[in-house]
C-alpha cells in the first residue's frame, strides 16, 4: 500500500474495512513493489542537480524584492537599490545555470501529464527570468522609481507559481524520485 495524505481524497493507505492500514500516526508505509520509475535526468551522487541549483536564484530574486522594500520604505540608504540590482543579476545568472540540467531533465520525462507540467514550469520560469531581466534593464537605464520595484514584485509572484509547478511534479507525480519514494496521485488532474 502507498500512504497518501487525507486531503488528496485518495483511499490509498486505507484497508478494506475503512481503517488506517498503518498502526501509528506518522509511521511510514512499508515499501513493497512500487510502480517502476527510472531515475533519469542530470544527477550528482544520485541527487538531481536542478533542485540543488534553483535555491540560489530563488533566494537572490526574493532578496532583491526585500532590498527594494527596504529602500522604498526609507528603512535603508539608497545603496539598497544597488544591492537589489546585483541580486537580480545574480538571480538571472543562477537561473540560466539551473536551466541547463533542467533541459536534460525535461527531455527524459515520459509521462505526458508530467511533461505538460514541466512545459508550463519551463515557460513560467522563462517569463520570470524575462521579468527580472526587464527590471534590471530599467535599473541600468536609470529608473530609480517604483517601476522596477513593481516589476520585480510581479516576477516574485510568478516565481511562486514556478515553484508550485516544480513541487507538483516532484511531490505529487514523483518525477526524479526513486520508485516507492513518492506517492503519485494519478487520479487527480493537475494543470
Main features:
two-stranded antiparallel sheet, 2 strands, elongated, mainly alpha, single chain, 191 residues
Give an overview of the whole structure.
- With 191 residues, the chain is an all-alpha fold.
- Helix content is 57%, strand content 2%.
- The chain has 4 helices and 2 strands; from the N terminus they run E-E-H-H-H-H.
- Strands 1-2 form a two-stranded antiparallel sheet.
- A hairpin with a 2-residue loop joins strand 1 (43-44) and strand 2.
- Helix 1 runs antiparallel to helix 4 (147-172), helix 2 packs antiparallel against helix 3 and helix 3 packs antiparallel against helix 4 (147-172).
- Residues 1-37 have low confidence and may be disordered.
Blueprint of the fold:
Layout: E1 43-44, E2 47-48, H1 49-72, H2 79-107, H3 112-140, H4 147-172
Antiparallel strand pairs: 1-2
Helix pairs in contact: 1-2, 1-4, 2-3, 3-4
* Helix content estimate: 55-70%
Percent of residues in β-strands? under 5%
> What spatial form do the alpha-carbon principal axes imply?
elongated
Distance between the termini: 27 Å
Mean pLDDT: 79
Number of helices: 4
Q: Helix/strand-derived class?
A: mainly alpha
Helix and strand sequence: EEHHHH
Strand segment count: 2
**Largest sheet: spatial strand order:** 1-2
Radius of gyration over C-alpha positions, nearest whole angstrom:
21 Å
Low-confidence parts: 1-37
Q: Summarize the biggest pleated sheet.
A: 2 strands, antiparallel
Amino acid at each position: 500500500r502507498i500512504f497518501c495524505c487525507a486531503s488528496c481524497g485518495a483511499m490509498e493507505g486505507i484497508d478494506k474495512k475503512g481503517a488506517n492500514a498503518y498502526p501509528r500516526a506518522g509511521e511510514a508505509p512499508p515499501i513493497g513493489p512500487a510502480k517502476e520509475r527510472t531515475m533519469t535526468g542530470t544527477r550528482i551522487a544520485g541527487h538531481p542537480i536542478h533542485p540543488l541549483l534553483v535555491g540560489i536564484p530563488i533566494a537572490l530574486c526574493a532578496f532583491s524584492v526585500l532590498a527594494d522594500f527596504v529602500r522604498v520604505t526609507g528603512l535603508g540608504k539608497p545603496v539598497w537599490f544597488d544591492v537589489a540590482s546585483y541580486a537580480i543579476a545574480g538571480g538571472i545568472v543562477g537561473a540560466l545555470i539551473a536551466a541547463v540540467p533542467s533541459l536534460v531533465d525535461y527531455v527524459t520525462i515520459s509521462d505526458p501529464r508530467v511533461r505538460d507540467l514541466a512545459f508550463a514550469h519551463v515557460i513560467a520560469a522563462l517569463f520570470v527570468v524575462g521579468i527580472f531581466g526587464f527590471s534590471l534593464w530599467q535599473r541600468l537605464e536609470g529608473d530609480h522609481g517604483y517601476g522596477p520595484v513593481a516589476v520585480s514584485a510581479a516576477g516574485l509572484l510568478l516565481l511562486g507559481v514556478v515553484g508550485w509547478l516544480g513541487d507538483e511534479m516532484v511531490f505529487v507525480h514523483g518525477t526524479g524520485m526513486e520508485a516507492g519514494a513518492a506517492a503519485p496521485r494519478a487520479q487527480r488532474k493537475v494543470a
